[in-house]
């Protein structure tokens, strides 16, 4: 009986029986075309086949190159298995001379491995392959999951992709989609190559050059601010962090940064301010300050055995800290009172002084200040202020017999340190009328310098962030302490120690202690034979130097107890060679 069998859907134009995936509904534009070209007036329930409606598209394209017809969703029939797919597009009809791969469903198109554990190639992977190799991968192509990583092919998989066809057949929808993606990529590359949101754009070395830390460390640092800094239409939280670190690392002005990142200067200033506040709140308390690390951790993890042997009492319970002030230069202020307080007679320019406290390995324990640079705030006065105000509970942290290694600028605070039970190690002074230190004083100063140099290197590490080595505007003075603390916290968490030490440090320290107590026989010979009163005449040596002692680098290290003098020896030799009138250097 009628109605019991399958429903028959003939094409209204060619009268061909259409299958479900071939039939199309007839909208007003198609009905007008059929009535005008074929004198056919379709009914509402009539259908048209895919081939015939394609003729309609070709005919319309000839009349207008800008007309694009797309059948609406409510007029298209979508098979049940494809309910979630996008709007149906025109059939492939444009042939392009672009290499393409095979379209496979039952096997991987890269390694030809059969299923069933195959996945459809994501559109991002197909597009990136086209950008890198100019190869079209047909939609619906399948491959092994191991060839993909985060919706992109691995480098090994890209190298194994083979082209089976010299051309490809595409429809208008695919071509338009490809053009839109190419345009979006071109705009993104035109705006900025510096993209912190996409891991694939910048390499690990790029992150180090731009931000001072590698990609993994950048991601970890971002976790401290992502809940406090909000995304905006012009910048994400990752971009804001990248701008902040790039500013500190390079010292480039906001005007140039605005051009590089293609955002306004006001947005740039807000990004820097928000990231600074977020890092001070979440990052700094965990990585800087007396409260972030215990006394025992400093002794056991951040104290060199050489320092313990030179200055310790053998119990290995004393914390050895090295203190020094560093300089951050600022502009001359129009406020006369602040101008006087920030002017340094020693440097002859306005500046502020953060007080840096490090361990003997170069680990930043804390950074205090910054303090003003006038005579009321020399290093000794700053140290007294630290203990009198008990900043960061320093009195509770420091224990009896702890050791502070300082320079001569702390001489006025030695009495206070002694009252607190802290031992101070400081280079010796020349007494009034004394022209040269005694042997014991010179050796004691050398022992102090062997440990104290690390704080100078720590100050240099701070200045490697170029923003802090430049002259800062006065409006940034209230935030200088935050910037220095952030840089030191990043150094503690992500950068290697400045002075990790070596395996035989105890032996080297014992040798230095032994040599420091020996009699200076060279001094005695100079005084006895009056060598200090004779003039030294440099001349070219004879060709016969067989009797001259030949020492390798290891022998020189043993003599000098380090490498500093070895590095300077070449410069000293060149200086003397330039003084020789008949030397080759003077003739050349």
TrEMBL record:
<keyword id="KW-0479">Metal-binding</keyword>
<feature type="domain" description="DDE Tnp4">
    <location>
        <begin position="323"/>
        <end position="492"/>
    </location>
</feature>
<dbReference type="Pfam" id="PF13359">
    <property type="entry name" value="DDE_Tnp_4"/>
</dbReference>
<protein>
    <recommendedName>
        <fullName>DDE Tnp4 domain-containing protein</fullName>
    </recommendedName>
</protein>
<dbReference type="GO" id="GO:0046872">
    <property type="term" value="F:metal ion binding"/>
</dbReference>
<feature type="region of interest" description="Disordered">
    <location>
        <begin position="70"/>
        <end position="93"/>
    </location>
</feature>
<dbReference type="InterPro" id="IPR027806">
    <property type="entry name" value="HARBI1_dom"/>
</dbReference>
